[in-house]
Amino acid sequence: MSKQTINIAYTVDDKYVDIMGVSIYSLKKNRSKNFIYDIYVLYKDGTISEENKKRVLSLSEKDFNIHFVDVSKYLKMLEGKLKTRDYYSITTYYRLFIPLIFPDINKMLYLDSDTLILGDVSQLYNTELGENYLAGATDEAILAIPIFQKYVEEVVGVDKYQDYFNAGVILMNIKKFREDKLFDKFVDLNDKYYFIVAQDQDLLNVLCRNKVHYFDHSWNKNPTEITKPSSLNLIHYHLTMKPWHYDGIMYSDDFWSYANETDFYDNILKEKQNFSEEDKKKDEATTPLLFEKAQKEIDNINNYKRKFLIK
């Protein structure tokens, strides 16, 4: 009997390759050997060195295959249309191309590079999606911050703020994405409206509204006390909560324990040592800036919900 294949996608550039390397290593270490794993690393030509590719590919072994996939030709389809700012880079949009890049694959687990996998991802991958576009977890920042709750209900248009998912760990029903032409809908929506707070995550929440299966936070746990799942399968070092930048981050021991077992450790340690006071000030400004942007959109008489959802 042949083994089932677990399909997983990351997006990366040279800036994040070491962090992603630790994530892939942790995934490999905690996987079930009853499956084949195909790991697809999406990148743009010229943004990751051949040396860094080799370092990541060295994690490959029997039934654990790593493939680098150049998305340059897909990016050209949207040249000049993808907006970035602050801590968002163009790589965050690559996941939206997954249904186009993999026409013969029906399901894909997408993972942000700043994740650490402590559980067996085959359990998450085998979640039954039915007619849903994807499975995800409620964004923990939304659960904690009233202005974000107001923003996602009054601007993005989710019915309840608890329905707004974080797009850093999503199980995608890419067969359903293709059938319902979600990429075309994304292009159309991206042309119509610019979400200034969470960009492609807001877009995904609009496109997948009422078509989401929710899994618990054990599979997408931020380093905070906001939720307390009974088990811990995946840590997501979201936004500025990076143990490779700061001491005292929750679950930092887990990260460094895995990093220390890899060839990526020395580079990550250097990154932490070189993280400057100026970098820290930039991080400190992130949350107030997001509050400001969220309030601006709430007050905007032509925000997305008012313009397109309220008749």
Distance between the termini: 55 Å
Strand coverage percent: 15-25%
CATH topology: Spore Coat Polysaccharide Biosynthesis Protein SpsA, Chain A
Count of helical segments?
14
- Gyration radius from CA atoms, angstroms: 19 Å
Instruction: Please give the CATH class.
Output: Alpha Beta
**Strand order across the largest sheet:** 3-2-1-4-7-6-8
Helices and strands in order:
Layout: E1 5-11, H1 17-29, E2 36-43, H2 50-57, E3 64-70, H3 72-76, H4 98-101, E4 108-111, E5 115-117, H5 121-125, E6 134-138, H6 140-144, H7 146-156, E7 165-172, H8 174-179, H9 182-192, H10 200-207, E8 212-214, E9 234-236, H11 252-259, H12 265-273, H13 277-299, H14 304-309
Parallel strand pairs: 1-2, 1-4, 2-3, 6-8
Antiparallel strand pairs: 4-7, 5-9, 6-7
Would you kindly provide a written description of the structure presented here, covering whatever features stand out?
This protein is α/β, with parallel strands linked by helices and 311 residues long. It has helices at 17-29, 50-57, 72-76, 98-101, 121-125, 140-144, 146-156, 174-179, 182-192, 200-207, 252-259, 265-273, 277-299, 304-309, and strands at residues 5-11, 36-43, 64-70, 108-111, 115-117, 134-138, 165-172, 212-214, 234-236. The strands form 2 sheets. A 7-stranded mixed sheet has the order 3-2-1-4-7-6-8, sandwiched between helices. Strands 5-9 form a two-stranded antiparallel sheet. α7 (146-156) crosses α13.
